[in-house]
Automatic annotation (TrEMBL), chains A, B:
Organism: Olea europaea subsp. europaea
Keyword field contains Signal: yes
Alphabetical list of InterPro entries matching this protein: Acid_phosphat_B-like (IPR005519), Acid_phosphatase_pln (IPR010028), APS1/VSP (IPR014403), HAD-like_sf (IPR036412), HAD_sf (IPR023214)
MF-aspect GO terms: acid phosphatase activity
Protein family according to the UniProt entry: Belongs to the APS1/VSP family.
Protein name, as recorded: Acid phosphatase 1-like
Signal peptide range: 1-19
UniProt entry keywords in alphabetical sequence: Glycoprotein, Signal
Amino acid sequence: MSFFNDIVIFLSLFSFAFSQETFNSKIFLKTSITEYAENSEIQLKECLIEEVQLQCTSWRFAVEANNLSPWRRIPEECVNYVKDYMTGRGYQFDLDRVSNEAGVYARSVELRGDGKDVWIFDVDETLLSNLPYYAEHGYGLEIFDSLKFDEWVEKGIAPAIKSSFKLYEEVLSLGFKVTLLTGRSERHRNITTYNLIKVGFHDWDKLILRSSEDLKKTALVYKSQKRNEMIEEGYRILGNSGDQWSDLLGSSITDRSFKLPNPMYYIP
Amino acid sequence: MSFFNDIVIFLSLFSFAFSQETFNSKIFLKTSITEYAENSEIQLKECLIEEVQLQCTSWRFAVEANNLSPWRRIPEECVNYVKDYMTGRGYQFDLDRVSNEAGVYARSVELRGDGKDVWIFDVDETLLSNLPYYAEHGYGLEIFDSLKFDEWVEKGIAPAIKSSFKLYEEVLSLGFKVTLLTGRSERHRNITTYNLIKVGFHDWDKLILRSSEDLKKTALVYKSQKRNEMIEEGYRILGNSGDQWSDLLGSSITDRSFKLPNPMYYIP
């Protein structure tokens, strides 16, 4: 902070000009100057922190409201902001709220009970959390590395997102059929099943993964096609939970869909 | 804060037990106790403020991500939060960001130039700001009163939202046709035109207002129908800006739509 050092030096020289003053008053003046400079430095730091906080909150809003163009990584100045959000209470608050809202809606839906009432869940950052992986990769600052991420997936140790687990149980108990619609590849069917069961998920009706012909499609197109097929088969998709807008938009959109928070990555 | 008073009394009695101590040490102890209690009270207050901040930020995210069931007014505990956001820099940051993002997208679109390339703007809280009205009505805490709001509309003094004005000018200069699609009633056509022109808007192609048969429709249905009609007439709706999800969802959804922030009210 050379700016403040300059001010201290300038004001020290200024105080020197009044050297006819008593020793005590000079010390007092110098102390005041140093304190002033230190306080100003603290104030400037606080202003900068507030500025970054405002900018990154605004960025996160733009993510959650689907206002941003496709983005490949989080803004560098928001790394600590995203880390604090994901590891602090903010993320938990948001997860709990979306799960509770979805629960209120699920209980309000009248089911026909013919086995065609469906709730769709995405998997990553919806039922399973990859936060342990992203914590090791800058919370979204690093460009996505599919090889490294696959290694993580193949460990099968992703924890459950607790609030989603609560919703999952409720939706099942209300009589919905649950379909899991994930962007993961078909070759990860076994490890995904293993991981889901290990952390408590059970009794889903279908687990739909990307086949080889789906791999080049955007998630928006792939997931829309899968929903279209379900509608053609006579299913009524009544609820949809996902952390990406590409889980929720496109065709065969549900009456109510629930956007879980995710400021770490974007899938088109 | 009787809890703290109790602590002070308890600790004062505790200090009294050590009355064989010198006068100075008793004063010191009492001062420390009072300071401790005051500090704890300040800490508790700070915790409560932080808690409300977290809860209301989470609520605002749920609004902007379209996760909430229809709501009639803002949560009572969030009045100050919403006021601070709307009158502070947060709202401006968010408005600027959505306008900039929309501008980036608008410049990237290849127009056919046959007079059928359209950008839709909503009016209230998109081009015109009703913040002066809502500031007088609890920033969304009061249940919406259509008579009072109509009185405000009929004054024709709503200011422009500057960042939207910037986008509006850019979109026009790029060659888009601009359609204004508002939930306002047809009987407010003249005053709405007057207000828009007074604050600088110009050269729109169409201003669509609710006719008497539209008045009972939800905004989602009414706006979808109007977009459908435009598509049938051969228009390509390339961009859409609105502060409500009912401006943007439904049928004939655009490739990119832009959700302006609005934590004050919800229109289904």
